[in-house]
Write a structure and sequence with these properties.
Layout: E1 10-16, H1 18-22, E2 41-48, H2 73-79, H3 91-100, H4 111-124, H5 127-133, E3 141-144, H6 145-156, E4 161-166, E5 172-181, E6 188-189, E7 202-205
The site of one guanosine-5'-monophosphate has 7 residues, from loops.
Length: 208
């Protein structure tokens, strides 16, 4: 087939705090494989442009093929669990991520390597451990956005993007953490652009 040129500048590697996904008006549903660990889970690895825009749904001819990630399935279930309702085994979430985002970097990472890269990135940076080592715990308490940002910056060398959502009582809470990765999908880099994350200066870190 036609060889497509790489057409993006970097990846956002996005992880979600399950307690914050679930602690919303929409609530959540645990996967059919059971309640995930109280740890950050992968949301996605998203090709992006330096101006903040991004490509999506790049190749209808390469649909998600579960057989290509059979060796990764159990690691995916623990590191990339789905929390949307209705409960699922993850395949719908992973398929969505591949079709919308993964197909936009497929000139560099095939489907297997796309998911494998994300799993390896998660292993390289243990966000929960970084935060807990700085005294920032998922205990329902409020922490300064600055303290959270500083802890991750000091541990990784790069400033993260922090995204918040709103809990059922209207509090701003720690929802997603964005790190930037080079186009090979292997090395963390300084973010060319940080997403604007809608956080208050003091945010809740709910338990899960
Ligand atoms: P939301 O509107 O919940 O922030 O984002 C909805 C979806 O848009 C995300 O799940 C993701 O697929 C996509 N998206 C949001 N922001 C970005 C971004 O900065 N870069 C990329 N590549 N995708 C994004
Ligand atoms: P995005 O388009 O923002 O990359 O991905 C969000 C889509 O994946 C939504 O359609 C959402 O329903 C689905 N999804 C399934 N499981 C999850 C989950 O655990 N977290 C998030 N953020 N989205 C999920
Ligand atoms: P999507 O179209 O991406 O499924 O969902 C749109 C938005 O609603 C995303 O921000 C996604 O995270 C959120 N969302 C979708 N399904 C659920 C759910 O079951 N629970 C929660 N808390 N959020 C959801």
């Amino acid at each position: 087939g036609v060889v497509l040129a790489q057409d993006f500048d970097f990846f956002y590697f996005v992880q979600q705090w399950p307690g914050s996904y679930c602690d919303t008006k929409k609530s959540c549903c645990y996967p059919t494989t059971g309640k995930p660990d109280a740890d950050f889970g992968i949301h996605g690895l998203w090709p992006n442009y330096k101006d903040g825009s991004y490509p999506s749904n790049c190749d209808p001819d390469t649909p998600f093929d579960p057989s290509k990630i059979s060796d990764l399935k159990s690691t995916m279930q623990s590191s990339w669990p789905t929390l949307a309702c209705p409960s699922g085994n993850g395949m719908t979430f992973w398929s969505h991520e591949w079709v919308k985002h993964g197909t936009c970097s497929e000139s560099i990472l095939n489907q297997h390597d796309y998911f494998d890269s994300a799993l390896n990135l998660k292993k390289q940076v243990d966000l929960l451990n970084i935060l807990q080592s700085a005294g920032i715990n998922p205990d329902g308490g409020f922490y300064s956005l600055r303290a959270i940002t500083n802890a991750i910056t000091q541990a990784t060398g790069y400033a993260p993007g922090i995204e918040c959502n709103i809990d059922e009582s209207g509090n701003s809470q720690l929802y997603q953490i964005y790190l930037c990765v080079d186009t090979s999908g292997t090395n963390f880099i300084k973010c060319p652009l940080l997403p604007s994350g809608k956080c208050s200066s003091s945010i809740e870190f709910p338990s899960f």
